[in-house]
Predict the structure.
Amino acid sequence: MATNQANTNRLHPEEQHSKFWQNAHTYFNRVYDQMGLDPTWRQYLSSPKRILTVSCPVRMDDGSINVFTGYRVQHNNARGPFKGGIRYDASVDRDEVMALAMIQTFKNALVELPYGGAKGGVVCTPKNLSMAEKEGLTRRYTSEIMPIIGPNQDIPAPDAGTDAQTMAWLLDTYSMMVGHQELGVVTGKPVSIGGSVGREEATGRGVMNVLRAFLKTKGKTLDGLRIAVQGFGNVGSWAAKLLRDRGAKIVAISDRDCAVRNDGGIDADDAMAYVKKHRTLAGYSRGNGDEISNQQLLMTDCDVLIPAAMENTLDAEVAPHVKARIVAEGANGPTTPAADEILRENGVTLLPDILANAGGVTVSYFEWVQGLQNFFWSKKEVDDELQKIMEKAFAEVNAKADAADCDYRTAAYTIAIDRVNEACRLKGLFP
Ligand code: NAD
């Protein structure tokens, strides 16, 4: 059996994350220098405004008490209230959450949402927690970060390891504490209690929208395109399904436990049903393809690679062997700066995270607006508005890349930094 050792495991998690924080700065500084912006604002734009660390004691099913560490990092709110997801994972640490919050600030600016950027995380292994333990943890974490969140202050959402149920507990805890239902405090909620239709699939749908818009500039379509997806969670599975529904062929998928390749095409619906039932892809290769390693998946023969798992998975060791001609970043920060350079030199087109995966926060914005107004949209309205925003953002990035003769990541960051920079400059310093 192939070993499914992801290349992310080469470094100790803490080393990886300080590297991730450095990577976020490398991308930021590279563009900031090229833009010749006023150096006065550099530190302000690249530093988190607030970092909260909390301890969450939780009664476990066996009667013991476990204390979980959680974070909420608010990066910048010059353009509006903070907004960003909450991650539950064993490898969460302060640096990782800081990097994700910074990326979120520029992502929200790129798609012109009236938000700043934030991120949260709790150090835990969600699959080892029972529902009752997960609920206890979520309620305690919510009450601990309560002083700094709110519908006009900071609005959490799901990220890796959290889902609509987690957001329902967050909504209820916050609402119980303020004494009334507060729909606008969190997005990614179940539709039956004020969530938005289309939010669950929104990040994958945004990846599809951006990829399709890029292909159009080359006179191509999704039809017959061979796609490999690393990470078959929320983002990866929906991207695979929506792309397959539009004629692309999914030749490889993976999760933490297993990677599968099938040249004849993988049925994304079937794989999603399998993961829903078994909570893992392990065993899926039986009858559905050949088992490969996670590293082989990144280097597999395909036209488009979608890294949709975690940060730093595409590094300098893997990058020279990537066969895809297009990389669409479903995850946040999957490509290290060294790998980014190698891919560019090798003529690979990279659709960067702050553009390609912005569909999730965009529909979160729609959900927030619907919740504040208690007026709900149809699925078609959500999908159409999302498509408009993603296509507009891609067109702007494409035009900037053409005008400046630069890659898409540089173009996207140039637009985003300019917008955040302008908001900071216009507002000035307090007091
Ligand atoms: P998820 O928890 O639903 O899924 C993550 C998937 O990646 C799982 O299948 C997991 O097994 C797999 N995985 C983890 N580490 C892996 C590795 N090293 N190799 C292969 N597979 C691995 O999480 P998600 O919500 O889909 O988020 C995935 C990424 O997308 C994260 O970087 C997240 O920040 C980013 N993102 C998520 C959203 C959203 O709306 N959920 C929005 C924008 C960006």
User: Anything to note?
Assistant: The radius of gyration is 20 Å. DSSP finds 14 helices and twelve strands in the chain. The CA atoms of residues 204 and 239 lie 4 Å apart.
